[in-house]
């Protein structure tokens, strides 16, 4: 009871720490969100060799480029070191919107379900509810978490894509990277959508000017490699042996991805540093001020016989409890704030990611910094004579 | 019980000039004696009491509790000596505002590691003896000045210290409450403690074994 009352005496200190830690955790969670996005993309591109048809076309995302005909896909399969080629189509869901910010773009991904996904890091996309696509599925879709949330979709819902009705059979786990905004369909359905979207392609097909079959309508392919082979070497080999394709070396694509997100990386380092300094200063200042405010009490306790060690232990115990409560409160406040913003203001996008390492780090950071500030302040206080402490606190 | 020899203490003015407060003060108080120190405001009475109670160090001189030269002890030794041997009563009571009356009294036992059950019993007895037994759970802000000083008195005597130092203990009290506190201090002297009261009120000297006047930094009988 007395301890509770002692802590109640620290109410404003706790509130100050809650606010400081909430700021730290909120900014950190935004940084973590960006980090997760970049890491997710990096992991994806390092798990496969991405190939697209040479030229410009409707395709977007990792397989942006011109048409990649079936013959080329077969030729790629024959390249030594290649194990598994999955034809894919990536299309912007809405071609009328700007393609400038690809990180927030909604995409239709069509995959050839007769071939196992060659990506070593994403053999299957994680499904939270429902199921993933099966070979032979038509007019059904699996949607990313953000896509589903922004439209209120769940398993059994229906969406219209190019005037066709699709049933949602699965919703992906939130991955905090590109697939969160994907609509995944069979490649046959994606081809139909591509034709419906692209007037030029329709004209070409109707004219009979190009000998194209449905199987030729691919924007790219995901290519796997045999165990023990170097993916970059296999990619170079594909480039050398198959003409008319754009081949992305995994390491090169990773480097490109990282350089294109360098601004975000720098931004998040800045945000993290700022959060660290602001949150840390706020916390340390609040804790030290709380100790200095009680200087008279410490003088009285020393007059009653408290040794430096006893007083230090007492203050340290209290400050640990205060910073722990403040730290937990700050984490709770930041999570509530993040939830509210994600739920009501961010249009179902997830702006915050409260990773365990962030929460654990913030708590340990707040406790250690609070304790350090308390030790510093206590050392200053006990360096005074009891009479001086009482005089100053009067 | 208490012997102080040649106490010297000065403070520094903002200009850096030393301001002498004690200039060789001597004092001896035996167990069971009540000594009263008077003097005008600013004469150094409180400083003398602080130095005697090891709340601040003198620049020179010696202080003995019984056969121990406590002025030569280190910080930890002085803390122990304060806890075991000295009880303080201050003009402004100096109760901790976040603690109840009972908890404030018990605070004196915490740092000398007295058994909690015995100490608690003794604290309640003391509070009842001075007439605030019905205020155990009240916080200082809920008590009158007289009640606060009674609680402070109980805290000062909880460990039965052989030396009791009171700095203007009636300075913030009305006559009736002041009389209660002075009677209680006299009672401690009768019970065997060495008591030193610093006060400018003449009634404090009633029943005193010795009355000193602090003048020019020295004590005059």
Structure overview:
The complex is a heterodimer of chains A (394) and B (221). Chain A is α+β, with helices and mostly antiparallel strands and 394 residues long. Chain A has 2 domains: 2-38 and 262-393, no CATH class; 55-243, no CATH class. Chain A is built from 13 helices and 10 strands. In chain A, strands 1, 2, 3, 4, 5, 6, 7, 8, 9 and 10 form a 10-stranded mixed beta sheet that branches. In chain A, helix 2 packs across helix 11 and helix 11 packs antiparallel against helix 12. The model of chain A has no long low-confidence stretch (mean pLDDT 85). Chain B has 221 residues and is an alpha/beta fold. Chain B has a single domain (2-220), classed as Rossmann fold (3-Layer(aba) Sandwich). Helix content of chain B is 33%, strand content 27%. In chain B, strands 6-7-8-3-9-10 form a 6-stranded mixed beta sheet, sandwiched between helices. In chain B, strands 2-1-4-5 form a 4-stranded antiparallel beta sheet, covered by helices on one side. In chain B, helix 6 links the parallel strand 7 (163-167) and strand 8 (194-198). In chain B, helix 3 packs across helix 4, helix 3 runs parallel beside helix 5 and helix 5 (145-157) runs parallel beside helix 6 (175-190). The model of chain B has no long low-confidence stretch (mean pLDDT 93). Chain A binds chain B through residues 2, 5-6, 8-9, 296-297, 300-310, 385-388, 390, 394, and chain B through 50, 53, 55-57, 75-76, 79-80, 82-84, 88, 90, 92, 94, 96, 98-99, 103, 107-108, 110-112, 155.
Care to count the β-strands of chain A? 10
Number of domains of chain B: 1
Low-confidence stretches of chain A: none
Helix share bin of chain B: 25-40%
**CATH structural architecture of chain B:** 3-Layer(aba) Sandwich
Principal-axis shape of chain B:
globular
Q: What distance separates the N and C termini of chain A? A: 27 Å
Can you tell me the number of structural domains of chain A? Answer: 2
Helical segment count of chain B: 6
